[in-house]
Amino acid sequence: MYAAHPPQVTRPDLMALVEKYDGRAPRYTSYPTAVQFNPGVDVATYEAWLAALPADEAVSVYAHIPFCGRLCWFCGCSTRAVNRHEPVSEYAKLLVEELGLVRKALGATRPAKAVHLGGGTPNMLSPDDMEILFGAIAETFALRDDAEVAAELDPATLTRDWVQAAGRHGLNRASLGVQSLSPQVQAAVNRKESYEEVARCVSWLREVDVGSVNIDLMYGLPHQTSINMVETLDRIIGLRPERLALFGYAHVPWMKAHQQLIDEAALPGPMERLDQSEAAAERLIAAGYVRIGLDHFALPGDELAIALAEGRLHRNFQGYTTDDAGALIGVGASAIGFLPQGFVQNAAQELPWRKAIAEGRLATARGVALSDEDRFRGEIIERLMCDLKADLSELCARHGREVEVLAPALRRLRDFEDDGLVRLDGACVQITELGRLLVRSVCAVFDAYFEPEAGRHSKAI
């Protein structure tokens, strides 16, 4: 077994802990989570929130590209596979129209500090599509000289021409979805690509001076083991990406029908998943990477690791981030944004989104307005997710509350403390290394909306 579990914890004890705490829990990329989004936040609400944004405060921009050249059976994203370019180019033109509607609601150009292309597969956009999209972004926002421009990329469909075109638009951070290099695992999830393809993509990105390359990997996939997990890592580490994300596969076939194509009998169990995650963490730490939060790793000189050390790490729908913008403007089908007043989401399905934009109206379908209590609990959860610790006294003082309001949550944490998953020092909560992979379960203690029996979320490990 590769995993380095704490020596004082026997394997039977560890199995008992996994059985006790490996329930379903949110990923906490927002608080409240998307489960609480509702249609009460509509187009009129969003327009009012946009108009109220301070004119001199920099925002971030997210564009969702819901197309892929192939359908990966593990995928939990809002996307679809296409074999013609026409739907993609038509979609890009509608993104331009949507940005025009956002510009009208804003009433004035706002500075922007980051642009993130997500999906799906943003490299399904052609260079011409990117030209019109970035042109519209430049009309709507004043992109700062030091802005982060990032894209999520599929190595199997990425081309050197695409990378060079993106480089001309300022691409300086990229994330390559790899998941696993094991042929058996790849065949089981319909995602085949070679190490050579991945290495070639990294070299293209370096040619245009992309200074931060991330590799997405997964554990818990069918036929995945600690051995083939580490074999994948040994090859990826040789490319020396600045960051790696190690996500646990979330098997939710009741939400994503294509996941029914996965053989459930080939999925590793909770202890196997834990072994894979810890084996990967051990290997990455030995290679000089800093472990960040639940599932990220970064080289010590990368901005993500520096932000962790300085206590200014954040978490949003793209995962762990250094982005501290007070607003994120999302465009595209299913795109989520946030503003000081709350979260907003476009129509999740592409056709309703297309219809709304074509008719000259924003496609806002739902969201949630933040209460003071949401902001209070959201900050506790973000600090736990990012720093694995939270000074509840300090947070209560900042939000004008007495620590006593958290007494029920602290009582619930006594079980976690008894099992060695957290340490409590008065009102300070510290998640231990043993408890790291269960940080979502710890956060759920502070979640006023969480319903553990509702079955809406993925497993905690």
Automatic annotation (TrEMBL):
What one GO molecular function would you report for this record? coproporphyrinogen dehydrogenase activity
- Localisation per UniProt entry: Cytoplasm
**What pathway annotation does it carry?**
Porphyrin-containing compound metabolism; protoporphyrin-IX biosynthesis; protoporphyrinogen-IX from coproporphyrinogen-III (AdoMet route): step 1/1
Report any Pfam family annotated for this entry: HemN_C
Q: Which cofactor does it need?
A: [4Fe-4S] cluster
Residue ranges annotated for the Radical SAM core domain, each copy included: 53-287
Catalysed reactions, semicolon-separated? coproporphyrinogen III + 2 S-adenosyl-L-methionine = protoporphyrinogen IX + 2 5'-deoxyadenosine + 2 L-methionine + 2 CO2
State the top-level EC class. Answer: oxidoreductase
Keywords, A to Z, come to: 4Fe-4S, Cytoplasm, Iron, Iron-sulfur, Metal-binding, Oxidoreductase, Porphyrin biosynthesis, S-adenosyl-L-methionine
Assembly and binders: Monomer.
Role played: Involved in the heme biosynthesis. Catalyzes the anaerobic oxidative decarboxylation of propionate groups of rings A and B of coproporphyrinogen III to yield the vinyl groups in protoporphyrinogen IX.
Name it. Coproporphyrinogen-III oxidase
**What species is this protein from?**
Phenylobacterium conjunctum
